Amino acid sequence: MKLVRLRAPGGLDRLDLVEEDPPQPGPGDVLVRIRACSLNMRDDFAVRGKTPLADRRVPLSDGAGDVIAVGSNVDALKPGDSVVSVFYPWWLDGEMTPATRRDIPGESFDGFASEYVCMPAQAFTKAPAGYTHVQAAALTCTGLTAWRGVVVCGKVKPGDTVLVLGTGSVSLFALQFAKAAGARVIATSSDEEKLERLSRLGADAVINYKAVPDWSRKVRELTDGRGVDHVIEVGGPATLAQSLAACRTGGHIALIGVLTGFAADVSIPAIFSNQIRISGISIGSRADQEDMIRAIEVNRIEPVIDRRFPLREIAAAFTHYAAGKHFGKVCLEV
To answer: Of 276, 206, 202, 269, which is closest to residue 243 (Cα–Cα)?
Structure first.
C-alpha cells in the first residue's frame, strides 16, 4: 500500500510517499481502505513542524473510506460499510475528560494519509448515506466543531441570529447548521466574491469587514440594536473584542479558532456585565458525530469542497491550503 510519512522535524519537503505492507485487523479492529482525506489547520501546523511529531508519523486527522475487513467482537461495522473517522477515538459520549482526549490520529498515532488503516472500530462512524468519500472526509474536524458550537453548546433554535466569521470550513458548516435549525445568519468576509458565495449558501446578511472595520456596530444595526444570539468565533485575539460587542446580553460565543494568534486582551466586565456565555470548542465526541450525521441526512446538507488533490501531491495541497484563497475544504483522494 502507498502512504505518506513525515520525517522529523517536519516541512513539506519531508513528506515521503512510501510503500509498505497493509496492516491486518485484530480483535475489535476494522481495516479500512481510505479513499479521501481533508486538510485542517492543525494538520498544516503538524506537517510544517509547528507541532512536534514522532519521526515518520503518518499525518492527517480526517479520513473516509470503505471497511474491508473486521476483527472479532466488531458488531457495529461490517465489510462494505462507508465510514468516516472520529477525531477523538476514546471520547465516545458525554463531556470531554483528560482520558478521552489522549489520542489524536495524525499526531499521537498514525493518521489517514494512507491507502489502508487498521484501527479500533470506535475510531469510525458510518458516513452519511449518499455522501461521496470526499464529502465524508470533510466532516471529522471542521464539521463536528461547527456542530458542537451551533447545536450541542449553542443550542441554536428557530428565530435566533447567528454571526459567523470568515469563510473557513468551520464557519461554512456553522452557516449551514444554523440555517437548518431555523436561524438567521450574518456572515463576514473581506472578499466580495466570497461574500456573494456566502449569500448563495444561505447567509441572510453579509458584511465586508475590511470595508466596515467596525463590523460589530454593523451587526448591531442589522439586529435593531439587540445584538446576535450566537457568535462562531474563529478569529481569536483580533476579533474577540468585536465579537463580544456584537453579542446580545445573555448571548453565547463559541470560541473555536486562533487564526490571529493565541493570546488576547479581553474586557472581563464586557463578559460578566452582559452575562455572555463562552464555550470553548474542541471538536466533539463520537456520539456528537453520529447525531450530526443524522441531521445531515435529514436536512440534506452537503459540505463545500474547494479542491481535490491526489495523495502524491500532498505537499501541493498544503501549499494551496496555506495560501488562504480556498472556499471550502481542501481534500486528498487516496
So the answer is: 276
